[in-house]
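ok trying this again, last paste got cut off
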Amino acid sequence: MPPHLRAAWRRTLAVLLLVLAAATVFGLVIGQVGAVLALAALGVLAWHYWRLRRVLLGLTVRQRWEPGRGHGAWNELDRLLHRSQTEMRARKRRLLDMLRAYRAAAAALPDAVVVVDRNTQRILWFNKAATDLLGLVHPRDLNAPVSERLQPLPLARWLAAGRNAEPILDAPAPADERLRLNLRLIPYSEDYWLLVARDVSKLLRLEQVRRDFVANVSHELRTPLTVVHGYLDMLEPADFPEWEPMLAEMRKQSQRMTQLVEDLLTLSRLESRDSLPEEPIAMAPLLATLRREAEAFSQGRHRIEVHDEAGCDLLGSSKELHSAFSNLVINAVRYTPAGGTVEVRLAREAGGGVVLAVRDTGYGIPESHIPRLTERFYRVSSSRSRESGGTGLGLSIVKHVLGLHQARLSIESTVGQGSVFAAHFGPERALPRHEGEGAAAAAADAP
């Protein structure tokens, strides 16, 4: 107990003893000690009861507490209650000011912010931008079902996914179909979700302009490159011995530019599509083709192994998947030193999915570079890539092809030990294999 409280408690006891002593003396004077002491004790008890009742009433009605003016225990209690009340009110004012500041900040955001109850999926609060982008009106839409108010956006299944909901990258705004929105669902507690909608119309227009520019420039470069390549083919090195090194380098660079233009056109075509024509793809012949391409590119400098362990085919675009798988295999051969091994393995995954993994014993990739490998023209080693004839677009093409098949690319690598590039497909892409493909599968699996 603090010293001032101990002193107040002692003063209260001293006053009580003084009252009882005075009552005893007065009782001796009049010859009624017991009666006077009883009356004094009842008076003291009544006074303490009155002070207790005053404290309880004050706490019940939440009245403003005045600090005590005396030095007894009850006065110290009054001072403690006054101090506690003052601190609580100050804390409440700070919390209210903080809440107003947060609400003002949320209201000033250019992105639409909607607080949604997790259990009922009803709207609890939204900022001003939600009115402009989502068409929500205060107070009409408060406590209304969010999926009903934001039609025609497909939110029912999206909200049902909860924490696993993937962002909706492009959707028309309910308030204005000319606007395009990016929607994200952020669970920030057990009971509430935050729905954030961002206007990405300008970004999408800029992206479309970029795609059109790349496609048009690549298309226009085809003709002059064809002409240059044709004239170079007409120049025989035997006729101009002194120009032979220059002609060889010019042919090499013109072929590299032609491949670069073709890759840019392929990437532009993939980016402009939302889906691809699908058909059953016989994987055994495709794996055999990948083996032949790898061996032709390697020219006997590497050991090529193909293992078909899945026993199934895939549903997808044969041309595009062949291009993606070929990119992975050729990259593995390109960045593996002579004498190394490139292994292609088709296998089933837990849950019924299918994975095509390409493993090499090459140089390996530092971990810091792995997240950026699928960016256009990103190279871990520019000199090594150019020497081997890479364009820097292969993994970008792979990423887009797999994205159009609802598949994903995983990359694992250790410097000095090699890398594993794996394409993971969902169970809906796996198809039963035709019986006639057994021999082809066995041939593909041979080392």
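PB: full thing came through this time. Confidence is low (pLDDT under 50) at residues 438-444.
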